[in-house]
Amino acid sequence: MLTSSINNTTRLQLAPLKIPTRLLLGPGPSNAHPAVLQAMNTPPVGHLDPAFLGLMDEIQTLLRYVWQTENPLTIAVSGTGTAAMEATIANVTEPGDVVLVGVNGYFGNRLVDMAGRYGADVRTITKPWGQVFALDELRTALETHRPAILALVNAETSTGARQPLEGVGDLCREFDCLLLVDTVTSLGGVPLFLDEWKVDLAYSCSQKGLGCPPGASPFTMSPRAVEKMQQRRTKVANWYLDMTLLSKYWGQERTYHHTAPINLYYALREALRLIAEEGIENCWMRHQKNVEYLWEGLEDLGLTMHVEREFRLPTLTTVCIPEGLDGKVIARQVLMEHNIEIGGGLGELAGKVWRVGLMGFNSRPESVDRLLEALRQVLAK
Ligand SMILES: Cc1ncc(COP(=O)(O)O)c(C=O)c1O
Fold it and tell me: Which of 157, 203, 217 to mutate to test the pocket of ligand 1 (most atoms within 8 A of CB)?
């Protein structure tokens, strides 16, 4: 025993950190903008320092802008997109609540699992991976299940499909239910009008369309959703993500809740500032233009896309792996020989597609050119 404890105290010698510089064109993370990385290097202040509290206010204002919402309760959760996802479910779900989830990919299933863990009576409406729900299908499902919450994934990263949201909020109001939307792969890259579309709860991440490292995740709740939270019979079953507590840190009271990851918030603020400077509409248009350039180039290489053009995401494209090719081997060669990351398929689409992300800072013609050239060389072999 003594020997082993002595061994544990000997010094460990490791070389200083050395990580290759990659072009991250997978499903995320994507490369952060250099100015964002620079902002992240700013020395931290205390999490209750007036300078930091001012920055939190700015993050709230900027998040409302990129999401096109006036929701007072709009914050960044300290954690990745999954934490913000769990925050939406945890705050409005009470045991027995009927939660209807649209499942047309991997992340719909994650919502199902999560809602079940908070005691919801979870129902699902399903579609093959790569397809989306039409309004009349959602209406029928709402009539059948009469849920308290309808949850949809706006940008299904596992399939590359964009779930249209126009009209869904009105439907939800008609059936007196809340609309919860995953915008992890859409925020910053896909047009979103949360208030106009009557979305009640939404969450996202920092590492995709916002062009920031992962770890500080946008979250918003409409006054309707806040009302449901305030009328809870039970406490929110997750202390860390409880908005009745967190809103006191982000709101007037400034009550200590947790030690915010200060530098990540510096980065998020810079990432959002850059988007505001570009203009959110210009940012959406840039994503659309560059993805169309990518699709054209992929088609020239003889490749086809998994999703019908009308519903393809501008941020994430699923490319069918041609018969007889091992997609993993190709992706590995693209990574090791060209320093470019692309993703493989998830779940049902494993081995069938590559997932190519063009998000945030990476949505540029140069990224497309580099990837097309790498694919051309690797496929030629
Ligand atoms: C649609 C969607 N939802 C949720 C998540 C979870 O986010 P994170 O990996 O940041 O926790 C992801 C991650 O890729 C996603 O694509």
Answer: 157
